[in-house]
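W.,

You were right to be curious about this one. When I first looked at the sequence I had no strong expectations either way, so I just let the prediction run and decided to look at it fresh. Below is the sequence, 208 residues in total, followed by the output.
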Amino acid sequence: MLARVDRACSACGRDPASVTIIAVSKNHSAADAKLLYDLGHRVFGESRLQEAIPKLELLPDDIDWHFIGKLQSNKAKKAGGLFRTIHSIESENLLREVSKAGKSTDVFLQVNIGEESQKSGLFEKDLDAALVNAAQYENIRVRGLMTIGPQFANPDDNRPIFRRLAALSEQHGLKDLSMGMSSDFEVAIQEGATHVRIGSAIFGPRAI
Protein backbone atom coordinates (compact mmCIF):
# COMPACT_ATOMS: atom_id res chain seq x y z
CA MET A 1 0.00 0.00 0.00
CA LEU A 2 2.71 2.48 0.97
CA ALA A 3 4.56 1.65 -2.23
CA ARG A 4 1.46 2.48 -4.28
CA VAL A 5 1.06 5.80 -2.48
CA ASP A 6 4.75 6.54 -3.04
CA ARG A 7 4.44 5.82 -6.78
CA ALA A 8 1.34 8.00 -7.10
CA CYS A 9 3.11 10.85 -5.31
CA SER A 10 6.24 10.42 -7.41
CA ALA A 11 4.14 10.66 -10.59
CA CYS A 12 2.96 14.15 -9.63
CA GLY A 13 5.97 15.41 -7.70
CA ARG A 14 4.41 15.23 -4.23
CA ASP A 15 5.87 14.26 -0.88
CA PRO A 16 4.18 11.04 0.34
CA ALA A 17 4.08 12.62 3.80
CA SER A 18 1.47 15.05 2.43
CA VAL A 19 -1.04 12.19 2.08
CA THR A 20 -2.89 10.78 5.08
CA ILE A 21 -3.98 7.17 4.64
CA ILE A 22 -7.23 6.52 6.50
CA ALA A 23 -7.41 2.77 7.06
CA VAL A 24 -11.12 2.04 6.77
CA SER A 25 -11.76 -0.81 9.18
CA LYS A 26 -15.52 -1.15 8.63
CA ASN A 27 -16.60 -4.76 8.28
CA HIS A 28 -13.37 -5.85 9.96
CA SER A 29 -12.79 -6.71 13.57
CA ALA A 30 -10.99 -4.74 16.22
CA ALA A 31 -8.35 -7.49 16.16
CA ASP A 32 -7.74 -6.82 12.46
CA ALA A 33 -7.36 -3.11 13.16
CA LYS A 34 -4.99 -3.86 16.07
CA LEU A 35 -2.67 -5.78 13.74
CA LEU A 36 -2.32 -2.66 11.60
CA TYR A 37 -1.94 -0.50 14.70
CA ASP A 38 0.90 -2.72 15.89
CA LEU A 39 2.67 -2.03 12.59
CA GLY A 40 2.60 1.66 13.42
CA HIS A 41 -0.54 2.95 11.70
CA ARG A 42 -2.62 5.41 13.70
CA VAL A 43 -5.36 6.82 11.42
CA PHE A 44 -8.50 4.71 11.06
CA GLY A 45 -11.95 5.28 9.60
CA GLU A 46 -15.40 3.91 10.30
CA SER A 47 -18.73 4.52 8.57
CA ARG A 48 -21.31 3.11 11.01
CA LEU A 49 -21.57 4.19 14.64
CA GLN A 50 -23.00 0.89 15.84
CA GLU A 51 -19.97 -0.98 14.51
CA ALA A 52 -17.46 1.70 15.46
CA ILE A 53 -18.27 2.15 19.15
CA PRO A 54 -16.99 -1.27 20.34
CA LYS A 55 -13.76 -0.76 18.39
CA LEU A 56 -13.19 2.66 19.91
CA GLU A 57 -13.62 1.08 23.33
CA LEU A 58 -11.27 -1.84 22.64
CA LEU A 59 -8.48 -0.14 20.70
CA PRO A 60 -5.77 2.22 22.01
CA ASP A 61 -6.62 5.81 22.82
CA ASP A 62 -4.00 7.34 20.54
CA ILE A 63 -5.81 6.31 17.35
CA ASP A 64 -6.98 9.22 15.21
CA TRP A 65 -10.54 8.16 14.36
CA HIS A 66 -12.34 9.56 11.31
CA PHE A 67 -16.04 9.07 10.58
CA ILE A 68 -16.44 8.65 6.82
CA GLY A 69 -19.97 7.32 6.30
CA LYS A 70 -23.35 8.91 5.80
CA LEU A 71 -24.30 10.60 9.06
CA GLN A 72 -27.87 10.68 10.31
CA SER A 73 -28.86 13.79 12.23
CA ASN A 74 -30.02 11.80 15.26
CA LYS A 75 -26.53 10.29 15.57
CA ALA A 76 -24.49 13.38 14.71
CA LYS A 77 -24.03 14.58 18.29
CA LYS A 78 -22.77 11.13 19.29
CA ALA A 79 -20.35 11.08 16.36
CA GLY A 80 -19.08 14.52 17.33
CA GLY A 81 -18.24 13.22 20.76
CA LEU A 82 -16.38 10.16 19.50
CA PHE A 83 -14.55 11.16 16.33
CA ARG A 84 -11.89 13.79 15.87
CA THR A 85 -12.80 14.25 12.22
CA ILE A 86 -16.04 13.78 10.29
CA HIS A 87 -15.87 13.57 6.50
CA SER A 88 -19.54 13.54 5.55
CA ILE A 89 -21.09 16.87 6.52
CA GLU A 90 -23.75 17.85 4.01
CA SER A 91 -26.14 20.18 5.86
CA GLU A 92 -26.36 22.87 8.53
CA ASN A 93 -28.46 20.49 10.59
CA LEU A 94 -25.53 18.08 10.82
CA LEU A 95 -23.17 20.90 11.75
CA ARG A 96 -25.52 22.00 14.51
CA GLU A 97 -25.90 18.51 15.92
CA VAL A 98 -22.17 17.75 15.81
CA SER A 99 -21.46 21.03 17.60
CA LYS A 100 -23.75 19.96 20.45
CA ALA A 101 -21.15 17.39 21.46
CA GLY A 102 -19.25 20.32 22.94
CA LYS A 103 -15.80 19.35 21.71
CA SER A 104 -13.56 20.58 18.93
CA THR A 105 -14.31 18.66 15.72
CA ASP A 106 -12.68 18.87 12.32
CA VAL A 107 -15.06 18.36 9.41
CA PHE A 108 -15.02 17.97 5.67
CA LEU A 109 -17.99 19.23 3.68
CA GLN A 110 -19.15 16.50 1.33
CA VAL A 111 -19.73 17.74 -2.21
CA ASN A 112 -21.71 15.75 -4.77
CA ILE A 113 -19.67 16.88 -7.78
CA GLY A 114 -21.49 14.65 -10.22
CA GLU A 115 -24.89 15.57 -8.72
CA GLU A 116 -25.73 11.86 -8.61
CA SER A 117 -29.20 11.28 -7.19
CA GLN A 118 -28.12 8.17 -5.29
CA LYS A 119 -25.32 9.95 -3.44
CA SER A 120 -25.27 12.36 -0.55
CA GLY A 121 -23.54 15.69 -0.53
CA LEU A 122 -23.91 19.38 -1.23
CA PHE A 123 -24.22 20.61 -4.78
CA GLU A 124 -21.64 23.17 -5.83
CA LYS A 125 -24.20 25.96 -5.77
CA ASP A 126 -24.83 25.34 -2.06
CA LEU A 127 -21.20 25.35 -0.95
CA ASP A 128 -20.88 29.07 -0.26
CA ALA A 129 -23.87 29.03 2.10
CA ALA A 130 -22.59 25.90 3.84
CA LEU A 131 -19.25 27.56 4.59
CA VAL A 132 -21.00 30.63 5.98
CA ASN A 133 -23.17 28.41 8.17
CA ALA A 134 -20.17 26.42 9.42
CA ALA A 135 -18.38 29.58 10.53
CA GLN A 136 -20.97 30.25 13.25
CA TYR A 137 -19.99 27.14 15.23
CA GLU A 138 -16.93 27.89 17.33
CA ASN A 139 -16.05 24.26 17.97
CA ILE A 140 -16.30 23.21 14.31
CA ARG A 141 -13.34 23.62 11.97
CA VAL A 142 -13.87 23.03 8.25
CA ARG A 143 -10.65 21.39 7.11
CA GLY A 144 -11.67 20.93 3.50
CA LEU A 145 -13.93 19.20 1.02
CA MET A 146 -14.80 15.55 0.47
CA THR A 147 -16.31 13.65 -2.42
CA ILE A 148 -17.00 10.07 -3.47
CA GLY A 149 -16.33 9.34 -7.12
CA PRO A 150 -18.53 7.07 -9.23
CA GLN A 151 -17.57 3.42 -9.50
CA PHE A 152 -15.96 3.50 -12.94
CA ALA A 153 -14.18 0.47 -14.37
CA ASN A 154 -11.33 2.81 -15.27
CA PRO A 155 -10.25 4.84 -12.22
CA ASP A 156 -8.91 7.57 -14.49
CA ASP A 157 -12.51 8.43 -15.40
CA ASN A 158 -12.81 10.01 -11.95
CA ARG A 159 -9.99 12.45 -12.66
CA PRO A 160 -12.30 15.33 -13.77
CA ILE A 161 -14.36 14.96 -10.59
CA PHE A 162 -11.29 15.01 -8.35
CA ARG A 163 -9.84 17.91 -10.30
CA ARG A 164 -13.06 19.89 -9.89
CA LEU A 165 -13.11 19.31 -6.13
CA ALA A 166 -9.51 20.51 -5.92
CA ALA A 167 -10.44 23.66 -7.84
CA LEU A 168 -13.36 24.33 -5.46
CA SER A 169 -11.09 23.84 -2.47
CA GLU A 170 -8.56 26.33 -3.81
CA GLN A 171 -11.31 28.77 -4.69
CA HIS A 172 -12.54 28.77 -1.09
CA GLY A 173 -9.09 28.79 0.52
CA LEU A 174 -9.41 25.34 2.05
CA LYS A 175 -6.37 23.19 2.73
CA ASP A 176 -7.45 19.56 2.69
CA LEU A 177 -9.13 17.22 0.21
CA SER A 178 -10.69 13.91 1.21
CA MET A 179 -11.10 11.92 -1.98
CA GLY A 180 -10.10 8.55 -3.33
CA MET A 181 -10.78 5.02 -2.12
CA SER A 182 -9.26 1.60 -2.79
CA SER A 183 -10.23 1.63 -6.45
CA ASP A 184 -9.11 5.13 -7.38
CA PHE A 185 -6.85 6.62 -4.70
CA GLU A 186 -3.82 6.90 -6.98
CA VAL A 187 -5.73 9.18 -9.35
CA ALA A 188 -7.03 11.16 -6.37
CA ILE A 189 -3.50 11.67 -5.06
CA GLN A 190 -2.37 12.90 -8.45
CA GLU A 191 -5.19 15.46 -8.35
CA GLY A 192 -4.33 16.73 -4.87
CA ALA A 193 -5.95 14.44 -2.28
CA THR A 194 -4.56 14.97 1.21
CA HIS A 195 -6.69 12.20 2.73
CA VAL A 196 -7.48 8.88 1.04
CA ARG A 197 -10.00 6.45 2.51
CA ILE A 198 -8.71 2.92 1.92
CA GLY A 199 -10.42 -0.24 3.15
CA SER A 200 -10.26 -3.37 1.01
CA ALA A 201 -6.84 -2.56 -0.45
CA ILE A 202 -5.48 -2.74 3.11
CA PHE A 203 -7.68 -5.23 4.93
CA GLY A 204 -8.92 -7.36 2.05
CA PRO A 205 -12.55 -8.50 1.61
CA ARG A 206 -14.97 -7.79 4.45
CA ALA A 207 -14.54 -10.05 7.45
CA ILE A 208 -17.59 -9.32 9.63
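Here's what jumped out at me. The domain at 2-203 is CATH 3.20.20.10 (TIM Barrel). And, maybe more interesting for your project: DSSP finds nine helices and eight strands in the chain.

Coffee later to discuss?

I.
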